[in-house]
Write a structure and sequence with these properties.
5-stranded antiparallel beta sheet
Length: about 230
């Protein structure tokens, strides 16, 4: 989870806190603090990255879920759990993002048709706010001041969309939604709240994938699995 994404979702909480009436505050609070059903059985996120960075290499070496074609073309099939491992491992490569992952209570990625739903549950008390830029720290402090009960709440942050692969990055389409609990907002809506351009926000959402001896050039979602396509080096 990138620092900017944490700031985005905390802004939603502030919006609900200053909505004006007790009914409005309760409405936004209940939606913003709803937790996903998978969280009750979530794995320890510290275990998800174990060996995940080498998952694609291991599949290539073993041939598990791998299909080879002409001219070194290769397809690698990943289950939901394996896709989640790959994403977590890539996020953990950044020191800044890694600090936020260490504060996570649970991390999950699911595949629904041609869309993926990925997100993190974290508790406000564990969030390394000292790693946020000054504006981000002010946002967090304002959120806690407006809603003191945030200090001990688990919060779900997620992204839903139909990504494609461009230059080794998962790039989300215009139908992408950013989630806070059960609240779903479009990229332009969130960008407007932040006062930045949708392109700047999109850059924060898109995610690089490890190449693992491959030049990745495509992704497809079939029967609940992710199929990565590329050329073996």
């Amino acid at each position: 989870m990138k620092a900017k994404q944490v700031v985005i979702l905390l802004l939603f909480l502030i919006f609900g806190a200053i909505a004006g009436t007790a009914a409005a505050i309760a409405f936004y609070w209940n939606r913003a603090t709803a937790l996903p059903t998978w969280y009750a059985s979530a794995e320890d996120p510290s275990l998800l990255g174990a060996g995940a960075e080498n998952l694609l290499q291991a599949k290539l070496a073993s041939g598990d879920g791998v299909r080879y074609g002409e001219n070194n073309q290769v397809e690698i099939t990943l289950s939901e759990a394996e896709l989640n491992q790959v994403i977590v491992a890539e996020l953990a490569r950044s020191p800044e993002t890694s600090r936020f992952l260490q504060a996570a209570q649970g991390i999950n990625t699911t595949i629904d048709g041609d869309r993926i739903n990925g997100g993190v549950v974290f508790n406000m008390r564990d969030l390394p706010t000292q790693d946020l830029p000054p504006d981000g720290q002010r946002v967090v402090q304002q959120a806690v001041n407006n809603l003191p009960m945030l200090r001990e709440r688990d919060i779900y942050v997620g992204v839903e969309g139909s990504p494609r692969l461009e230059n080794g990055r998962l790039v989300f389409d215009e139908d992408t939604r950013i989630r806070l609990g059960n609240m779903r907002l479009t990229v332009p809506e969130v960008a407007r709240l932040l006062g930045i351009s949708p392109a700047q926000l999109q850059e924060q959402i898109d995610l690089a994938l490890p190449q693992a001896g491959l030049v990745l050039d495509g992704i497809e979602f079939v029967d609940g699995n992710a199929i990565l396509r590329g050329v073996a080096q």
